[in-house]
Amino acid sequence: MRVTADWLVTLDGPPVAGAAVLLEASGRIAALGPSAEVPTPPGIAEIALPGTALIPGLVNAHTHLELTGLHGQVEEDDFTRWIRGVRELKAGLSPDWFRAAARQGVRDAFAAGITLVLDTGDSGAVLPALDELGGAGVAYQEVFGPDPAQCAASIAGLEAALDRQLPWCSDRVRLGLSPHAPYTVSGPLYRAAAQLAAQRGLPIAVHLAESPAESRFVREDQGPFADAWRARGIPPLAQQGSTPDSARRSPVAWLEAHGVLGPTTLCIHTVQLDASDREVLAARRVGIAHCPVSNRRHGHGDADSAALVAAGLTVGVGTDSVVSVGALDMFAELRAARALFGTSARETLRHGTLIGAQLAGMAAERGALTPGRFGDIAAVRLSEAGDPDLVEELVLAAEAKSVAATFASGRMVYRSA
């Protein structure tokens, strides 16, 4: 097909006015640029999207699509009680519910201009939904188990869950694993999960250094997470390491001690960091997913995104779940992230496109609009006609509902009414 729009925003040069993109039957971009310079092969379908700018499909670096439909179901402000509420809510839902929610989540992502996701969840429903509906991304299978005595059973369950999803894996839809967070995973389980990831060649995602409560739990064995462990008779972290004081460190140092951090590890949130933590993350060349709107909603504060970028780390932007933020609005997240990055509109949008694709290990074929890459494209309505110097600002000022059409792997997967 051949798609035309008022503007083409490639993010590697000035916006192009009166533009077109030619998509091959393979789903890859054959040509793009000023419409007069893009071929129109005989018999090709033409789609005109006036009043829009074509941008690379957005990349959501962290979300939980299996929770689609649960916005407003857990209104608790205290983060530890909120976490408990989400877990209790999920426990009452069926596999069929999660499958339907995941499919709706993929459709909602398309409607918001998102073509690639880095998703975490434990239902196993998101990877098949991405495969079925034509999305792309990494589905990280979560594993839990705070008690060291649970480790073998948790790993066995994780392996079984991974094996069930193998039939849907491809270059477009990939599998990862996620030992959830320091307050839900024991030291032995972290080490075993990291070893399993290495054996299977899978990437890892971890919620890390998210809240002050998490840091207090790991450093001091105090606070609501510690109280919950004591109530269940779970040994504190200080008794789960190689030395009696092994847990008297930051969450980042705790995961480093268990071999979790590396170039294929995605660290989610990373709000509560000090200089030594940033040095560890930079040395291990981890990826980072920041969710500024979600972080503020839960009172975690703002991540020092600029410092992590300055340290050479790859930092993407995600929405987190709709339970936290209500909608998959990457434009809102990117505007919030811009204040932390201190970047131009163009560079901010790159954090939500190509840089996110780098985190997924798919930047060679997705995340940018260039010939040969797959046609992952969002057509965004602009609030005014604009000029070349304002178009990228107008795109960043948009909302999820501003998306007029979305193309995933060269196929139209959404068009607004």
Explain the overall architecture.
The protein is 35% helix and 23% strand. It is of the alpha/beta class. A hairpin with a 7-residue loop joins strand 1 and strand 2. Helix 2 crosses helix 3, helix 4 packs parallel to helix 5 and helix 13 crosses helix 14. The protein is globular and about 70 Å long.
Can you summarize this structure?
By secondary structure, the chain is α/β, with parallel strands linked by helices.
- Which bin fits the share of residues in helices? 25-40%
Structural class: alpha/beta
Q: What strand line-up does the widest sheet have?
A: 3-2-1-4-13-14-15
The total strand number stands at: 15
Task: Give the end-to-end Cα distance, rounded to a whole number of Å.
Answer: 20 Å
Number of helices: 16
Give the mean pLDDT: 95
**Sheet with most strands:** 7 strands, mixed
User: How large, in whole angstroms, is the Cα Rg?
Assistant: 21 Å
| Low-pLDDT sequence parts | none
Shape: globular
Strand percent estimate: 15-25%
Topology at a glance:
Elements: E1 2-8, E2 16-23, E3 29-34, E4 46-56, E5 58-63, H1 79-91, H2 95-111, E6 114-121, H3 126-133, E7 136-143, H4 151-165, E8 173-179, H5 187-200, E9 204-208, H6 212-220, H7 224-231, H8 251-257, E10 265-269, H9 275-284, E11 287-290, H10 292-297, H11 305-310, E12 314-317, H12 322-325, H13 330-341, H14 345-351, H15 354-359, E13 377-381, H16 391-396, E14 403-408, E15 411-415
Helix pairs in contact: 2-3, 4-5, 13-14
